[in-house]
């Protein structure tokens, strides 16, 4: 049963735990939050969760981190949102700095690679689990919502089959929802509120479908202006320090400007902005080499936190190579570069949530606004399906299909993926336990020479 309140300390412990286990990219991270916050802890209802998610999907930046910020803000005002967003990113930043140092100093990370190899099939299982849970909740029965099923299928085909831009898919779904909400409102209306469905064995959510918007989450022009002014100050002040310190052409100032631009271009997740980062960081600035960028992406894929945290790897290598604090302080200089880039990459996400959240809360339950968002949710199911298929191919056929389907198949990875899926779906095991056991299995199998 959900309690009347969640203490700030309890929320902090959860957000920190989430930052440690948020594997699987946005699909896996959203799945973990859905399972923990909606189904188990009952801090927020299904519809309020999806309403917030839909808004985050429209924004540039990492939607899972923004969703955590949004829910933390709903629960505990601005400081709750800031804490949730920071703790979602902090473990990933620290781990990426450590792995980047190992990567540079030792030139190989065999022991890490073995653990991460074991985690990859578990990550694929997490994404599949997300598809089953969110798809089942969103699409309902095909006879009840054939248009939502059609949008989900079209989204999958557009992304996986034709590689259409993600923003185009989202905007198209929103347009269809806007039209469908007027022509077929019953198909785009949310399910009956939880309060009407609750049985004796179910608990109402702390923030339920019919829970009034908290006072701090109501729209105010004064509050909106205050958030925008503070956000602008938090960008200008550190930028001024960097410029005064090393000038506009200094490495740190250049990184700050470049990754601020990248933060505003990340519609569709990290994959959409990676070509831009590659062009700027590798080709134009020479902060790292192309193969190193691929290695950083591999680390980002299999460490907790948003995939866009690969920018910390890019910055670390750039700060190390450019010796931003001199040749005697390579590690400190690289760490500073990673922290600077992380600040300027994620700052816009906090501003978007704290400034736009009250506007989104004011639209809750209004069909003319929720219908486009419901259509976007259906499109997200197609997105997760395409990501699941892509990631399964990446995990199970790491060398491609040159030798045929069966010969190219990593059978050990397939067994681990099946075991992890069964543990999550049938065994109802926690994501933390599945990830830890999968990493341990990867290390053990590597020691026995059975990996790959």
Descriptive terms for the model:
19 helices, 452 residues, single chain, mainly alpha
Provide an overview of this structure.
- The chain is mostly helical.
- Helices cover 75% and strands 0% of the residues.
- Helix 2 (25-40) packs across helix 5 (110-139) and helix 5 runs antiparallel to helix 16.
Helix content: over 70%
The poorly predicted ranges are 192-201
- Envelope shape: globular
Radius of gyration: 22 Å
**Overall pLDDT metric:** 82
Instruction: Please describe the biggest sheet, giving its number of strands, its sense, and whether it closes into a barrel.
Output: none
Series of secondary-structure elements, N-terminal to C-terminal: HHHHHHHHHHHHHHHHHHH
The count of helical stretches stands at 19
* Computed structural class: mainly alpha
Strand content: under 5%
What is the total tally of β strands? Answer: 0
N- to C-terminal separation?
Answer: 45 Å
């Amino acid at each position: 049963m959900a309690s009347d309140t969640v203490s700030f300390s309890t929320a902090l412990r959860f957000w920190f735990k989430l930052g440690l286990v948020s594997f699987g990219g946005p699909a896996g991270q959203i799945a973990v939050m859905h399972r923990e916050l909606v189904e188990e802890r009952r801090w927020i209802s299904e519809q309020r969760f999806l309403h917030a998610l839909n808004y985050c999907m429209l924004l540039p930046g990492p939607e899972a981190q923004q969703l955590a910020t949004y829910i933390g803000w709903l629960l505990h005002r601005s400081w709750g949102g800031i804490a949730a967003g920071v703790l979602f990113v902090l473990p990933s930043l620290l781990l990426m700095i450590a792995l980047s140092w190992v990567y540079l100093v030792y030139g190989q990370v065999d022991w890490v690679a073995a653990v991460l190899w074991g985690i990859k099939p578990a990550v694929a299982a997490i994404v599949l689990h997300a598809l089953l849970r969110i798809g089942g909740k969103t699409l309902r029965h095909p006879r009840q919502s054939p248009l939502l099923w059609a949008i989900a299928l079209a989204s999958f085909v557009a992304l996986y089959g034709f590689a259409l831009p993600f923003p185009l898919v989202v905007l198209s779904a929103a347009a269809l929802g806007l039209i469908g909400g007027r022509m077929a409102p019953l198909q785009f209306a949310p399910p009956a509120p939880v309060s009407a469905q609750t049985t004796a064995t179910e608990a109402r959510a702390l923030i339920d479908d019919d829970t009034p918007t908290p006072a701090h989450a109501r729209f105010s022009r004064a509050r909106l202006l205050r958030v925008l002014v503070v956000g602008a100050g938090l960008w200008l002040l550190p930028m001024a320090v960097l410029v005064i310190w090393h000038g506009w052409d200094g490495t740190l100032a250049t990184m700050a400007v470049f990754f601020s631009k990248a933060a505003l271009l990340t519609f569709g997740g990290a994959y959409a902005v990676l070509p831009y980062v590659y062009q700027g960081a590798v080709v134009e600035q020479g902060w790292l080499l192309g193969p190193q960028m691929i290695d950083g992406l591999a680390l980002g894929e299999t460490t907790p936190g948003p995939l866009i945290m690969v920018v910390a790897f890019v910055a670390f290598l750039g700060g190390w190579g450019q010796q931003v604090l001199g040749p005697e302080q390579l590690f400190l200089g690289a760490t500073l570069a990673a922290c600077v880039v992380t600040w300027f990459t994620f700052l816009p996400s906090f501003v978007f949530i704290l400034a736009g959240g009250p506007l989104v809360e004011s639209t809750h339950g209004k069909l003319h606004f929720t219908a486009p968002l419901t259509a976007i949710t259906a499109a997200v199911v197609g997105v997760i399906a395409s990501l699941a298929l892509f990631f399964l191919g990446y995990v199970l056929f790491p060398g491609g299909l040159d030798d045929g389907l069966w010969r190219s198949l990593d059978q050990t990875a397939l067994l681990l993926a099946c075991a992890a899926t069964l543990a999550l779906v049938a065994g109802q095991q926690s994501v933390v336990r599945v990830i830890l056991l999968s990493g341990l299995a990867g290390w053990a199998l590597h020691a026995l020479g059975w990996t790959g």
